[in-house]
Amino acid sequence: MSQDKKQDILDSFDEFQNYLNDKIQKGEKLGLSEDQLAKGAERVAEYLKNHEEPKNTEEKLLQEMWKVSDDDEKHKMAHTLVKLAKKEGN
C-alpha cells in the first residue's frame, strides 16, 4: 500500500472503519469466520501499535487500550472492532 493511501486511511477514524469494513466484506466473501476476521483485526491493531502514531483521539484511545490489554482482552476488542466496522458499513 502506498504511503499516501495509508495516510488517507489513518487520518480519519471514519476512513479507518471504512477500510476495515471493506476488508471484512472481502473476508466474508472468501468464507472467513467471525473468529478469523477478528484475528485479522488483531494483526492490524498490533501493526498499528508498533508502527504508526495515532492520527486522532479515537486511534489514540484504541492504541492505549491495546497496549494495556492481555491477549484475551485484545481478542475481545478485535471482535468488537469487527462488529463496529460491519455496523458502520451498513
Question: Care to describe what's here?
Answer:
With 90 residues, the chain is mainly α. It has one domain: Cytochrome Bc1 Complex, Chain D, domain 2 (Orthogonal Bundle). 82% of the residues lie in helices and 0% in strands. It has five helices and no strands. Helix 3 packs across helix 5. It is globular. The N and C termini lie far apart (25 Å). The model has no long low-confidence stretch (mean pLDDT 85).
- CATH-defined superfamily: Protein of unknown function DUF3243
Main pleated sheet: none
The average pLDDT value, as a whole number, equals 85
- CATH hierarchy: architecture: Orthogonal Bundle
**Sequence stretches where pLDDT stays below 50 over 5 or more residues:** none
Estimate the global geometry from the Cα principal axes. globular
Give the CATH class: Mainly Alpha
Radius of gyration: 13 Å
H-E string: HHHHH
Structurally, the number of domains stands at 1
Helix fraction by DSSP (H/I, runs of at least 4): over 70%
If you consult CATH, what is the topology? Answer: Cytochrome Bc1 Complex, Chain D, domain 2
Class from helix and strand fractions? mainly alpha
How much of the sequence is in beta strands? under 5%
Q: Give the distance, in angstroms, between the N- and C-terminal Cα atoms.
A: 25 Å
Number of helices: 5
Q: How many strand elements?
A: 0
InterPro entries: DUF3243, YmfJ/YflH_sf
Protein name: DUF3243 domain-containing protein
